[in-house]
Please model this.
Amino acid sequence: MANPPRRPTNPMAAAEAAFKPVKKPAAPVREPTAAPGVRELVSIRIDRAVLDHFQEDGPGWQDRINDALRRVIEGKPIVTGGDRSDDE
Model:
């Protein structure tokens, strides 16, 4: 026989193999990037008022949010763009 048969020789073994649970490989451990200045794409939910505040100065609002968060973790005071002399 040059060509193998189209059906498996043991139909019971073929049926058991079809319904056997598939073992998924373990997810690889994700290590944080060590390169400085590399940005990670994330999805975050923030209040509309916060988003409006950072977007009112135009393009670059994502950088302004990143800068504000960076100053918080570094312990520096937060100063946003634009002339904010309303409170004075």
Summary: Confidence is low (pLDDT under 50) at residues 83-88. The two ends are 94 Å apart (CA to CA).
